[in-house]
Structures are given as C-alpha cells and as structure tokens.
Amino acid sequence: MPSPAEPLMNAVQIDAWGGPEQLVQRYVPRPVPGPGQVLVRVRAASLNAVDRRVRQGYMAGRLSLPYTGGSDFSGVVEAAGDGADLTPGTAVFGALWPTSGAYAEYTVFDAADLARKPEGLGFDEAAALPVAGITAHVAVLDDGRVQQGQRVLIQGAAGGVGHLGVQLAKKQGAHVIATASRANHDFVRALGADEVIDYREPDYAARLGELDLVIDGVSANSLSALYPAIRPGGLAISLFDPPVPPPDGIDARLVGTITVAQQPLRTPLEALARLVTEGTLRVTVTAAYPLSEIATAQESSVRGKAVVHP
C-alpha cells in the first residue's frame, strides 16, 4: 500500500491474465524518473492488438502481475531525471514495449526512446503512430524492401498497421492490392490501394494474380491460402507468432513476427514524424475512449486506430 503522502495516479492494471474483465482501474503510486528518464503526463494512449494478446497471457512468462498495459502514447514531460535530454513542458510520443504502462495518467520511460511531437501532429494521432507505424515501416521498407512496380498484398488494410502499410507501399511505387471488409473499401482506396478485395468472398486468393510480397495482419493461419499466389522467391511477412510456414513445393520466404523492440526508438519515431509532417503518411484515429472504458475499447474493432484518454 502506498504511504499517505505518496503521490497517486489513476491507472488500469491486470491482476490475472484473461478476458477484459481482468482490467481493473485503481489508484497506484506515481512513478519517479531515474537517471536518463522522464516522467510524462499521458495525453493519449493507443490501442493495439498486441495489448489484448498480452492481457490474455501472450507474454505471461516474461511479465509480472499486477501489470499496467498500454504500448504507445503521447504526452507532455512533467519531470526529468539526471542526464535526460528532454525538459519539462516538451510534448513527446513513444512506445513502451515490452514493458508497457501507458494506460495511466503518468508513465516513466527512457528519454532516448521518446521523440518530440511535431506541432502539427495531434496528441491522439501521435499516440497512434509508434507501434503501428514502426511495424508498417519495417514490413514494407526494411524487410519487404518494396520497389517500383512490385505487386504487394496487404491483408487487413483498414487496420492500424495495414492502413499505414498501404501508404508506404504506394510511396515506393508498388501496385497495392488490399483486403478489407466491404464497408472499408472506400477508406482503403483513398489511402492509395490500386485494388481492394473483400476478404469474406470465397476463394478470393485465387483471383490475386502473382504477388511479390504479402504482408499479413489478419491471423496466424491466414497465410496458408495465400502462399500459392506468391511468385517463386517472393516474400511473406506475418505479424503473428508463430506464423504458418510455406507448404512443401512453394518457393516463398517467410519473415516472422515483427516487434518494435529495436533500441533506441527515437530514430525510427523521428522518421515516422517526418513522413507525417511532409504529408506522405496519414494516421487515422476514428475512436477515442475515456480510460474507464478500456475494456470496451480493447474489444472493439475500428477503422485505422483508437485511443484512450487517461
């Protein structure tokens, strides 16, 4: 129990791995920044599929309880530890992975893993950018190495990673084929997709033509039907762990789960911020919830991204 004089903050924690009922809102001690760290007053925290998986026990062997979730966020520096190069009053954004802790009024993190928020980028959009943006950047540009004229399929193109991946692939000059529910077709086309296919249509994979790259953000098993469409020597990138490997007789390479665990994060975050500032990349936030509705928020499916406000 905190001492009576200890500053408290509102946070959402997990006491046991499981469903949304395990998310408990309570007052906990406010963290104190150590050397090289900053205390950030959180303005918005993003919702990611991985947060729900962690709540369900995906990383139970690596994390301790009670656990405060929330992977990426934006906010304002409240206090700085010795040696931190960010000063109080600075607007920042970043990703707390795999430690997490953004579902709270305050969070502490290494200053080197945070980037300054551009003035033209709102707090909601900044919070939505780190995990999805870095994942899309790695998938399309680093691992995928998308080039002019390539045929690229992005599964789940209306989601957080998908809607950013479509834009990055088009920037490289690719012919982008995207899957999304019919209700999201106009949204995905507006992002730049050349073809949009309803993933609910039976045997849609048979109509894709030959693909150079598949980026799959739907499920661990959805790659199975897509491998025959990948050209010999082509690449499949799965955002799920473990991904389904190519069947015998299919000459395709597989890159498994992508994480944002590269360090430090400031460099890739600044690169994403530049893309947004110059108009190359647009992050879409379509829902915002109070922290008290985190259970509903985690179970919701939205176009683009959703955030919570502590």
UniProtKB/TrEMBL annotation:
| Matching PROSITE patterns | QOR_ZETA_CRYSTAL
Per its UniProt record, what CDD domains does this chain match? MDR_like_2 (cd05289)
GO MF terms on file? oxidoreductase activity; zinc ion binding
Keywords of the record, alphabetical order, are:
Oxidoreductase
Name this polypeptide is given = NADP-dependent oxidoreductase
- Annotated ranges, domain Enoyl reductase (ER): 18-308
Mind giving the lineage of the organism this protein is from? Answer: Bacteria, Bacillati, Actinomycetota, Actinomycetes, Kitasatosporales
Q: Does the keyword Oxidoreductase apply?
A: yes
InterPro entries reported in the protein's UniProt record = ADH-like_N, ER, GroES-like_sf, NAD(P)-bd_dom_sf, Quin_OxRdtase/zeta-crystal_CS, YIM1/Zinc_Alcohol_DH_Fams
In the UniProt record, the signal sequence range is none
